[in-house]
Design a protein that fits this description.
Distance between the termini: 20 Å
Strand content: under 5%
Radius of gyration: 12 Å
Number of strands: 0
Protein name: Transposase Helix-turn-helix domain-containing protein
Helix content: 55-70%
Largest sheet: none
Shape: globular
Length: about 70
């Protein structure tokens, strides 16, 4: 996937993937959520291995593909 295609997808899905930061944690950027979801769909890696690769929580990584695909 080219950078232009990634930017186009991000412009379409970005507002839906944006979350609000809180006092306890910083929100994950829509670009990173999209990257996790696309990598999961393209590679078929387990969600746990993606969590280690992206240094995110398992629950967060589990929610990324479903959040992207539901929109």
């Amino acid at each position: 996937m080219s950078a232009e295609q990634m930017d186009e997808l991000l412009s379409l899905l970005g507002p839906e993937l944006t979350r609000q930061s809180t006092n306890y944690r910083a929100a994950i950027e829509p670009k990173q959520r999209l990257a996790v979801a696309l990598r999961y769909l393209a590679s078929g890696d387990s969600l746990i291995s993606l969590a280690f690769s992206y240094r995110l929580g398992c629950t967060t990584v589990t929610n990324c593909p479903f959040g992207v695909c539901s929109h």
